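Recall that a protein's primary structure is simply its ordered list of amino acids. Everything else, from secondary elements to tertiary packing, is in principle encoded there. The following example makes that idea concrete.
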Amino acid sequence: MMLQPQLVAQCCQAMQEAVPHIPITVKCRLGVDETDSYEALCTFIKTVSEQSSVRHFIMHCRKCMLSGLNPAQNRTIPPLKREWVLALKRDFPHLQFSLNGVVQNCQEAASIIGHRQEGVEGGGGLHGVMIGRQAFYQTWDCLADADRTVFGATSNPAISRRQVLEKYGKYADAMIGKWLVRDNGQKNPNVRTVFKPLLNMFHGERGSKRWKQAVDGKFKSATSVSELLKDTLECFPNDVLDAPPKQRPVVAWQVDLNLPEPAPKRQCCGDVDSKRAVAMTEQLPSTNEVQLHGQHDGQTGGDAITDTDGDDQDKVLLAAGDCSVAASVAA
C-alpha cells in the first residue's frame, strides 16, 4: 500500500470519520522494492498527512522486498536505516514519528527517545519507540525497568517476577472465555493463549527449561493461569522469583548522523506555513495518560494503527508525557 499513498490517505480518513474519538496512526516501512529513495518516502508521508488526519507515523526502519524474500528475511536482510527516521522528524517537525527497528530493551528505548537534533525545530526528538519480538523473547530483561528508565518513576512498580505473575494470573483468569464459550466447552481465549506472554519471563535463568516442560505437561488439564503458575513455579529458587529488575544505565544513542539530504521543498514541510503546523500539532492526542494501541471490546483509550508494513503482529504503544515506548509481540 505504500506504493499508493493517496489510497492510504483515503483509508485513514475513512477510519477517522468512523471513529472520530480515536486518533489514526500509520505504521510503515521505509520503502518497497526499488521504490526506496528518501524522496519517495517523503512523498508518502506528505501525501498521507496532508490528505488525512494522520499525524503520527511508526517507522519500521527497513524497506520491504515483495519479491525474493519471505517475511522472516524481510526483518533482517534489507539494511537498517534508523537515521532516516531522524531525517523525517527534521523535515516534518509538525508530525510525530516513532522508531521500530531492532531495539533490544527499555534502556536503549530511553536513549533513542532522549536524542535531540541540533538546529531542528523543537529539538527534533522522536515521539516514541516500538520494541518488537524482543519484548516476547526476553520479557523481563527488556521491559521490567521501563517505568524508571523511560517514564522517570523513582522506582519500578514491578518489584519481582513473583509479584507480576501473581497479578497477571488474576487478570488472565478473568480473560479466559471472555470472547466465546462454545457448546463443547472450548473457550476463547483459552489458558494456553493467555499464558503465552509468560513463556520467556525467565529467559536465561536457571530452571527455565524445566519450567517450560512442566508448563507444557499441564496445559491440557489446567483450568486457570493461576493454577498453572502455582503448580509449576516450584521449578525456580526464591532468589530468582524475588529478584528485582536489573537497573542498567542509559547511554547516548549511537546512530549514524549522516542523514539523507532534505527532500525537495515540495516533498516535505517546507511548504507548510507556521500557523498550519501549529494547528496540526494542536490536533495531536495528549499522552499524559497511558495509551494502548489496538484496544478491543469497545475500549477508547488508544490509537488505531493502519499497518502498511506487512508485519502481522499485535502492537501495543505505551505513552507518558512527551515520550512513548511500544511493545510488539508476535501472535
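Residues 94 and 277 are 5 Å apart (CA to CA). Strands lie at 24-28, 56-60, 96-100, 128-131, 180-181, 187-188, 304-307, 313-320, 323-330.
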